[in-house]
Amino acid sequence: MAEPSLARLSALFFGFLLLLATYSWVPGLHSGYLSGTGVRKTLGPDPKLRVDHSSAKPHHPLDPLTVQEIERVRAILLDHEPGFGSGSATIHSMALDEPDKKRVVKWKKGNRLPSRRAEVLALSSGQSHVIIVDLDSGRVVSDVVNPTSGYPILTMDDLIVASQVALKSIEFNRSVEARGVKLSDLVALPTFTGWFGPEEEGRRILKVQCFTSQDTPNYFMRPIEGLYATVDMDKLEVIKIVDKGMVPIPKAAGTEYRYNVQNKPVHMDRINPISIEQPEGPSFLVEDGHLVKWANWVFHVKADHRAGMIISQATVRDSETEKPNSQILMFTNVERTGEPRSVMYKGFPSELFVPYMDPGELWYYKSYLDAGEIGLGPAAMPLVPLNDCPRNAYYIDGVFASPDGKAIVQPNMICLFERYAGDVSWRHSEILIPSADIRESRPKVTLVARMATSVGNYDYTFDWEFQTDGLIRVTVAASGMLMVKGTPYENVDDLGDKQDESGPLISENVIGVVHDHFITFHLDMDIDGPMNNSFVKVHLEKQRVPTGKSPRKSYLKVKKYVAKTEKDAQIKLSLYDPYEFHVVNPNRKSRLGNPAGYRIIPGGNAVSLLDHDDPPQIRGAFSNNQIWVTSSYYLFLKIFGLNISPILLVLWCNRDRSIENNDIVLWYTLGFHHIPCQEDYPVMPTVAASFELKPANFFESNPVIGVAPIFEKDLPVCRPFASS
């Protein structure tokens, strides 16, 4: 019997193992001043410079753990528990145990950093541990065993071991070979089982399904349908094999997606390369590796094991609150800087819920929580220059810990770039005054922080886009491969009245199973400070005009309702009952008396239609509503690797605590239903959903009214290409 190829297993999961062996060198920071011009100028990040991670140090209370800190935590853990050296105890995640929010808010550059601590989620002898390591004292200050009924986030080792256990089963291998598949072509993919009853309590279980990579790297389009093995991860044994009989394996032809290998002609005119040129360099600065300064924005960005990318302490400068700045006045005597005002303490994707709509024995369990089960950080491959990010992008690495506690560098995990796509920030042309020649328009230039993660078959791209008018746009884009199901049918005409209930036929012998995507975001809004925010529901209510009062019959009236408790702020969106949703600081008023605020503006969205007692929906219960609001004392990240956090959100809100004039967190869930079609095969074009955080009486007026337009003289000289 041929041995399965472990190289294929290693290549399967995001290329993560390749990063275990080496550290990477990444783009660095360069900033400076051009003297003698009377105006301060800065050069943005220089992608030609490199940063040595082995000597990097933290500069901000929220900076992620460095390579040196991770290695120090590992040494401390080896003294604390010998199992970390022998392999009987494994690290499932390691991250900064962030200081108290009040301390972070009060901290100023130049102050001493708060005590650096690491939070480690580990598994030892089948028990979950949440360990806090104090780096200053060099000791473990807390080791809590089994704090919940959940299990830590899975590691790469878990996935590899589960595949190996299944492939040691003679019965399983015989079922594979009976289908004409060579074990050398076999790809065994562990998938998560969800939770389907008390009989699964106290057991770490994975189900292993199989694909063939014969003649294609796109094994996802060649499932070995009708077969899976259930593996007990604590006992490392196969506890169940299900073989429902042979189903034709879809063909390899037409599944290739690599540019250099494809031979499929594209009948369209060539699009010439497009690039944004910045002769004076980028307009943004990256200080100390994580603090971003651009236009009127300042924010902290870092990679995270679970969330992928976290944006923290976002502040925007308000030009209506001008204050002299002595350093700038030395140069020009005219420039002034406005007051930096806090908008958001922290924002990140908290969970991704992807339930598939096939209740059969081979598919019912497929309902994934990608952030909590595997983590968006380790699954983030290096971004592809010029394609994932434009030419003017600057890259930031992620630094994580392997299961044995060694530091891993994920190179080029996050990119920052300025975007201009011909959009308009604001405009007006005066048409009603014939003698006036007034045509005013301003270009919209934005700054984007981007991260992409490849969670198995799906790729998700997360964008945080900052505008000079104070708006933040958050976008999630999905691409990659569908999770498909093998079928004996090759044409819809063959189905007759046997239409597959799980999804449509998208290629010969391939069914695209219907599924949902729900992504919930943690948005700790701090409008002009952390302690005095309220959630306001702004309702558009139809009013009937009394007979004889007006030619009109009806109109809309705005009424505002301040949410008093958490249950008041549980929101289901409805087109037929329109609301706006504001986070305001009632203690900060505009000159007109309006409270300073931001509103969340939903984009296209979808709701979960599953019954609330359906096991997948119990785990993904955060999708029961599109908006939740909690006190920020809901410590979601304190158990960030345990797969029960979506349930906790619901349980916490049911306590119905006060949220008025308080430190609150807004949770927003965006989603979309996905009914696959032929265009999604073999790799689906990107589909995106977004929402916006937009100022609402935060500024005294349009904050970009005074922004200068662009003139021809401002741009480099480019000669048009004359075509015949």
UniProtKB/TrEMBL annotation:
Protein's GO biological process: amine metabolic process; response to jasmonic acid
Keyword Oxidoreductase tagged: yes
Family: Belongs to the copper/topaquinone oxidase family.
SUPFAM superfamilies reported for this sequence: Amine oxidase catalytic domain (SSF49998), Amine oxidase N-terminal region (SSF54416)
EC number: 1.4.3.-
Gene Ontology molecular function terms on file: copper ion binding; primary methylamine oxidase activity; quinone binding
Co-factor note (free text): Contains 1 topaquinone per subunit.
All residue ranges annotated as the Copper amine oxidase N3-terminal domain in the record: 152-250
Keyword Metal-binding belongs to the record: yes
Matching PANTHER family: AMINE OXIDASE [COPPER-CONTAINING] GAMMA 1-RELATED (PTHR10638:SF69), COPPER AMINE OXIDASE (PTHR10638)
Organism: Brassica oleracea (Wild cabbage)
Active site residues of this protein: 370, 458
Name the record gives this protein: Amine oxidase
Residue ranges, annotated region (Disordered): 45-64
Span of domain Copper amine oxidase catalytic: 275-704
The record's account of how the chain is modified after translation: Topaquinone (TPQ) is generated by copper-dependent autoxidation of a specific tyrosyl residue.
Record InterPro entries: Cu_Am_Ox_Cu-bd, Cu_amine_oxidase, Cu_amine_oxidase_C, Cu_amine_oxidase_C_sf, Cu_amine_oxidase_N-reg, Cu_amine_oxidase_N2, Cu_amine_oxidase_N3
Domain Copper amine oxidase N2-terminal: from-to ranges: 60-142
Keywords annotated in UniProt: Copper, Metal-binding, Oxidoreductase, TPQ
2',4',5'-topaquinone, modified sites: 458
Necessary cofactors: Cu cation
Tree of life domain: Eukaryota
